[in-house]
Design goal:
The chain is mainly alpha-helical and 439 residues long. It has 2 domains: 2-179, no CATH class; 195-437, no CATH class. The chain is built from 20 helices and 2 strands. It has helices at residues 2-13, 24-31, 37-40, 42-69, 75-101, 104-119, 131-140, 149-157, 164-169, 173-191, 195-201, 220-232, 236-255, 261-280, 284-291, 303-310, 312-325, 330-351, 372-399, 411-438, and strands at 365-366, 369-370. It has a two-stranded antiparallel sheet with strand order 1-2. Helix 13 (236-255) packs antiparallel against helix 14 (261-280), helix 13 crosses helix 17 (312-325) and helix 19 (372-399) runs antiparallel to helix 20 (411-438). The termini are far apart. Keywords: Membrane, Transmembrane, Transmembrane helix. The chain crosses the membrane at residues 46-66, 78-98, 147-171, 235-256, 262-283, 304-327, 333-352, 373-398, 410-431.
């Protein structure tokens, strides 16, 4: 399933960042010439493919080596797994280029088919007619008699790279230039510490609902909620993925109480991290209100009232979709509602912090070198760190009560009180930042 998801992800990633993204100058120089693109842009593709192959082999090699050292796998089977994943990385590189070269409808349909075939692996874990099925067979061979033919099949699947010249020739000059300029600007924003701006540059412009009116009538709160919902409908795929992430986050926080002590931390931290990322797709109104917070508001309202009104939709989305994942125990749902409100508060704090102070980029010489980058990282990741430490830690405390007692019972009551205190502190910091924006 992981291999199938990687293949589908490679297809979808090609539309945003393909394997052939030279600099704008090289793109203009190489693509604008009369030379065939199979020769001019082959080098960037080979470089991207090599990085992909090294990443896949390194990740798989570490896992397989751990199993060999632990005595759970034979060395011959481990070598076959690594070789098979090397061949699979060649197939991934080809699918990545397919995503960049062919139309979006074709790549989305193919990604759906790949995901379905990965999900329909039979009960015994084998599907011998797909590359991800061959990966499953090789992985099963680690603890069983060695199976060599899937590694050979994966090596032969890399022959799909013979179609690379035709795919390179099918690349459109305008799309290559658009990707090149976008990723050049993203690189510049990341180097200056503006991670929020870099993530915003990754967002495609809306293509749906552009003709639908967004009226500003009636009470301000109702009008803003209506406008935020209409704006969310302009990004259906993004909203769907974020909502699914919230459902998964609710489920992870709910199952924390059933996990052993060592695993509970993993599920809790994964759940709150996923919740923080998932609710972010519903926070466009918050970010817009914070970016436009000035002493003279366009709507004749203070920055606090505008940001507070735009926080309604994220809270409702987080509670609704997260509660679907936490269904089954009323106490789990109640705890998730508290977590959802706290995470949205942290999102408000993050949206209102404004640009990074230039003083954080000043060099800090130490015996081990310049550590000013730590200031920039702390500035960018402060909201996520708060969520991980407070929400994640308290979720583990709630789960420590065990199944049937999680939520607001037993230790959950104390966790709820601590979460309320932390929420009050976050709200005070957010209010301070909002007032600073208004000035």
């Amino acid at each position: 399933m992981i291999a199938a998801l990687l293949a589908a992800g490679a297809l979808l990633l090609g539309r945003t960042r393909g394997p052939v993204v030279p600099s704008p100058f090289l793109t203009e120089f190489l693509v604008g010439s009369d030379l065939p693109r199979s020769a001019t842009v082959l080098r960037p593709f080979l470089a991207s493919g090599a990085v992909l192959a090294c990443s896949v082999v390194a990740a798989v090699g570490l896992v397989v080596a751990a199993r060999v050292v632990g005595g759970a796998a034979a060395s011959v089977s481990a070598v076959l797994v690594v070789l098979g994943c090397l061949g699979f990385s060649g197939l991934l590189a080809g699918l990545w280029l397919v995503g960049q070269s062919l139309p979006r409808r074709f790549t989305v349909g193919l990604a759906f088919v790949v995901t379905v075939t990965g999900a329909t692996v039979t009960v015994d874990g084998t599907l011998p007619f797909t590359p991800w099925g061959w990966i499953a067979l090789l992985w099963q061979g680690l603890g069983e008699p060695t199976v060599w033919w899937p590694a050979l099949a994966l090596a032969l699947s890399s022959l799909a790279l013979l179609g690379v010249p035709a795919l390179l020739g099918n690349l459109r000059a305008d799309e290559m230039m658009a990707q090149s300029r976008r990723w050049q600007s993203i690189s510049a924003l990341v180097q200056t510490g503006d991670v929020a701006g870099a993530s915003g540059a990754l967002r495609d412009p809306p293509t749906r609902g552009r003709r639908r009116r967004m009226p500003l009538t009636g009470p301000l709160l109702v009008a803003i909620v209506q406008r935020d919902l209409i704006a969310a409908g302009r990004f259906p795929v993004r909203i769907a993925l974020g909502s699914m992430a919230l459902v998964g986050a609710g489920w992870l926080t709910a199952v924390t109480s059933t996990m052993p002590e060592g695993i509970a931390w993993i599920t809790a931290l994964a759940g709150v991290s996923l919740a923080y990322l998932g609710v972010g797709v519903w926070c466009d109104g918050l970010r817009n209100a914070a970016d436009n917070a000035t002493p003279g508001s366009l709507y004749g309202r203070s920055a606090l009232s505008m940001i507070g009104s735009h926080a309604v939709v994220p809270v409702l989305a987080a509670i609704t979709f997260g509660s679907l994942g936490a269904m089954g125990d009323n106490n789990n749902v109640a705890w998730w509602m508290l977590l959802a409100a706290f995470i949205v508060l942290v999102r408000v704090l993050d949206c209102a912090k404004g640009p990074m102070p230039i003083g954080l980029l000043l060099p800090i010489p130490t015996p081990v070198g310049d550590v000013s980058i730590l200031n920039a990282i702390a500035w960018q990741a402060d909201a996520l760190l708060i969520v991980l430490i407070v929400a994640g830690g308290l979720t583990v405390q709630v789960g420590a009560a065990g199944p049937g007692a999680a939520g607001l019972e037993a230790t959950g009551l104390g966790a709820a009180l601590w979460l309320a205190v932390a929420g009050a502190l976050v709200a005070a910091l957010a209010l301070r930042r909002i007032r600073a924006l208004g000035r």
